[in-house]
């Protein structure tokens, strides 16, 4: 009996060993990633390789019938015939995708949908390669039922990278729980053109602030373990200099020299890559005549060879085709595919840029097998590193519990509170007393959930969103009468009820007027193939939507649209104290209200908890400390008007001065702070330099609060022209009433370097000014230091 048992055991072991021997190396989770990639590449056909680079529009890939979700026939066809390896925006819902609260997916169904898609590719393809699923995640995962945070311009206003990292981690957790692997964000474009429609998606005009926020997003998204089930790959957008289009035209031509490109527009991307970002998206624009999607210098020489980037690059939607149709640098789609992939562009967001065109290019000898394998390996590598070959599925029950949980909602409220900028508070009108007998809440953005959320937001149940009106009602006692009158729309001039608003203001002790703009997409708007709105100056007598911002809605002026200004002026005439709350996506013309309204709050697009956050600030339960991440001009004729423009200083115009109405870094508090005892200590040794900066900051008021301490640097004399002032360090500091703290910074060579006349990074010997204060135009302390010897930072080599 024992003999037969031993024989049987031997047979089992032999069979197991044989099976193990036959198992492909790429399916061995213990094998090194590079070996797995090489093994899988060697097994793939040309068509399978090309398919791995195609990222199709994902919302067409599932079918929903009641509570059941399955892979669609369109998806099965794309997999069977085109061997696709990636999808984008599978869970996206908005008017462009035509996915509503009814036709779209809740978190549990979303998880079931992504599971169904993965199951099909794993079980019905020759090699069983799982999908990489990318989602829009700039201020929350753009899917039904997720947490909606303030848009990026509001995130930038917090000047709190640690808080933004917590937010990004929450977004990643929600997206990953539903089956996503890649989050599009952060957007690292410098917003130096406020007419541009996508200002709300940026962190503002400054490279240092953008860098810090970008690093925070990358760390929050990716964490330290991509196999955790709670982290996603971060895709940096848009590489590069996309945010300064001529005339504000989205996707239009930009004009910048290579020195400015390297000193201003590229540093946020470099910082995010250094932080470990694993994906980069190209921009629609060209630089010095070379489109970003076929720019070998950007995609290979700089990104990979100089910065050491080890992830994969992806086109913006349709930008490979744009090499033919927009830029006219390629004669045929195959030529465009060859230009892009040879330059270092790995994946095609659209599915029609590469696909058959790339196959044609390879067969015609325009693209080598090595180049194709290089791109495919970059995509496969991340699929292995995320553990998708071992575990491509997610738990729908977990998704239902994790998404929009109470902790994330409270975090959304905290980010919104910290993002609010107090622009004016004459005679301490704010904070308001909760025992006021009557408050008039007026304006088109006082009780409109979608106007509060910004672009890249999914449909929302009304119960998920707290408007300003609702926040105020929840804050005051039952004895306070709160009267709401809309007064006007954002743009439409045919539906105003200004007289009713004036009457409500006249009878109230205070009027809170909520104005601004909107990025709320609607089902009446036409959309381009890229998802940007189609905008016409002639509405043809149709009902006009509120949307005046968001992708595609570029502006010629920055004035309040519709009858908003008339509404405000008539309310102010009543003599009732007025507080203006601004909800919007870009700087607007605030000249009149700055002169005539005693209190102004800028809330940007504050997200789902925006109403509670605004009420917290209005009534003093939260002391505002947000600071402007972008300058507010007095007139479009001043543009550009960013604070760190190169010298010489701008002179005044005939009609107005050259200064912005509110400068970068500006923001008030209910507290007062005193700066003192600035100490600057430089040290130089062995080709390096450090400058220690220390000061005292004191809360001289009777109210606890935050102060954002900002350190600016000026190179007194430089080989090439530099700004008169450049932010280098900042710190948001909490101080109790009467408390004093020491704030310390350390500058290094990279903070002081410039590109010299030979395009070499160098810290030149000479004098520097350290300026510390509460904003770029409110410098409280200043001190000089001297560098005696030139220093070339070791981490940066020659640039172009």
Kindly describe this structure.
The protein has 800 residues and is α/β, with parallel strands linked by helices. It folds into three domains: 2-401, TIM Barrel (Alpha-Beta Barrel), CATH 3.20.20.300; 420-535 and 543-638, Rossmann fold; 673-787, Immunoglobulin-like (Sandwich), CATH 2.60.40.10. It contains 23 helices and 27 strands. The strands form seven sheets. The chain has an eight-stranded parallel β-sheet with strand order 11-8-7-6-5-4-1-12. Strands 13-18-17-16-14-15 form a six-stranded mixed β-sheet, sandwiched between helices. α5 (107-124) links the parallel β4 (86-88) and β5. α18 crosses α22 (610-618). It is globular, with a radius of gyration of 28 Å. Mean pLDDT is 94; it is low at 3-20.
């Amino acid at each position: 009996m024992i003999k037969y048992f031993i024989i049987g055991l031997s047979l089992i072991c032999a069979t197991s060993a044989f099976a193990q021997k036959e198992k492909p190396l790429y399916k061995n989770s213990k094998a090194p990633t590079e070996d797995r990639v090489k093994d899988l590449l060697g097994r793939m056909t040309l068509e399978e390789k090309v398919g791995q680079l195609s990222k199709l529009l994902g919302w067409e890939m599932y079918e929903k019938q009641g509570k059941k979700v399955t892979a669609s026939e369109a998806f099965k066809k794309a997999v069977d015939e085109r061997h696709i390896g990636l999808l984008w925006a599978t869970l996206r819902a908005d008017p462009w995708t035509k996915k509503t609260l009814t036709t779209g997916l809740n978190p549990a169904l979303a998880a079931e949908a992504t599971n169904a898609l993965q199951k099909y590719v794993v079980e019905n393809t020759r090699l069983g390669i799982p999908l990489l699923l990318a989602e829009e995640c700039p201020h929350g995962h753009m899917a039904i039922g997720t947490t909606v945070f303030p848009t990026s311009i509001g995130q930038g206003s917090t000047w709190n990278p640690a808080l933004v990292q917590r937010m990004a981690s929450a977004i990643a957790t929600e997206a990953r729980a539903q089956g996503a692997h890649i989050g599009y964000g952060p957007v690292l474009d410098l917003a130096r053109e406020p007419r541009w429609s996508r200002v709300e998606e940026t962190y503002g005009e400054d490279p240092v602030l953008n860098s810090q926020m970008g690093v925070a997003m990358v760390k929050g998204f990716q964490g330290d373990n991509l196999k955790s089930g709670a982290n996603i790959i971060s895709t940096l957008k848009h590489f590069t200099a996309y945010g300064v289009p001529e005339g504000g035209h989205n996707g239009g031509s930009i004009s910048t020299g290579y020195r400015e490109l390297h000193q201003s527009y590229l540093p946020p991307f470099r910082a995010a890559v250094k932080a470990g970002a694993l994906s980069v998206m190209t921009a629609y624009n060209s630089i010095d005549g070379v489109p970003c999607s076929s720019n070998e210098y950007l995609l290979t020489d700089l990104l990979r060879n100089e910065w050491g980037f080890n992830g994969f690059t992806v086109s913006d939607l349709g930008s490979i085709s744009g090499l033919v149709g927009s830029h006219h640098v390629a004669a045929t789609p195959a030529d465009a595919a060859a230009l892009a992939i040879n330059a270092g562009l790995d994946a095609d967001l659209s599915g029609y840029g590469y696909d058959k065109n790339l196959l044609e290019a390879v067969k015609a000898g325009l693209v080598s097998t090595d180049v194709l394998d290089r791109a495919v390996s970059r995509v496969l590598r991340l699929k292995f590193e995320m553990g998708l070959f071992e575990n491509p599925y997610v738990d729908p029950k977990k998704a239902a519990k994790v998404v929009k949980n109470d902790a994330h909602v409270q975090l959304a409220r905290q980010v919104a509170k910290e993002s609010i900028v107090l622009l004016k508070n004459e005679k301490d009108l704010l904070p308001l007393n909760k025992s006021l007998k009557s408050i008039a809440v007026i304006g088109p953005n006082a009780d409109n959930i979608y106007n509060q959320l910004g672009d890249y937001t999914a449909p929302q149940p009304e119960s998920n969103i707290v408007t300003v009106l609702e926040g105020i009602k929840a804050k005051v006692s039952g004895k306070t009468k709160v009267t709401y009158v809309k007064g006007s729309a954002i743009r439409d001039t045919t539906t105003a009820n200004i007289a009713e608003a004036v009457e409500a203001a006249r009878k109230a002790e205070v009027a809170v007027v909520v104005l601004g703009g909107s990025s709320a997409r609607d089902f009446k708007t036409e959309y381009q193939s890229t998802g940007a709105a189609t905008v016409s100056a002639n509405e043809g007598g149709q009902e006009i939507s509120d949307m005046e911002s968001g992708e595609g809605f570029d502006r010629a002026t920055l004035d309040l649209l519709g009858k908003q200004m008339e509404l405000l002026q008539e309310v102010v005439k009543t003599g009732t104290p007025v507080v203006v709350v601004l909800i919007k996506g870009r700087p607007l013309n605030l000249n009149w209200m700055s002169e005539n309204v005693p209190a102004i709050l800028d809330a940007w697009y504050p997200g789902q908890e925006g109403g509670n956050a605004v009420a917290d600030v209005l009534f003093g339960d939260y002391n505002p400390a947000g600071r402007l991440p972008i300058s507010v001009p007095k007139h479009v004729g001043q543009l550009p008007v960013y604070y760190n423009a190169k010298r010489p200083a701008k002179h005044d115009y005939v009609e107005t001065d050259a200064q912005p109405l509110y400068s970068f870094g500006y923001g008030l508090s209910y507290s007062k702070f005193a700066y003192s005892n600035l100490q600057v200590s430089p040290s130089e040794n062995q080709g390096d330099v450090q400058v220690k900066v220390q000061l005292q900051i004191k809360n001289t008021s009777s109210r606890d609060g935050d102060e954002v301490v900002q350190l600016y640097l000026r190179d007194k004399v430089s080989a090439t022209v530099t700004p008169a002032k450049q932010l280098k360090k900042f710190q948001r500091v909490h101080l109790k009433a009467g408390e004093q703290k020491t704030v310390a910074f350390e500058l290094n060579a990279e903070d002081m370097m410039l590109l010299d006349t030979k395009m070499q990074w160098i810290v030149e010997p000479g004098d520097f000014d350290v300026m510390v204060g509460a904003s770029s135009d409110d410098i409280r302390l200043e001190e000089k230091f001297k560098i005696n010897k030139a220093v070339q930072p070791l981490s940066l080599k020659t640039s172009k």
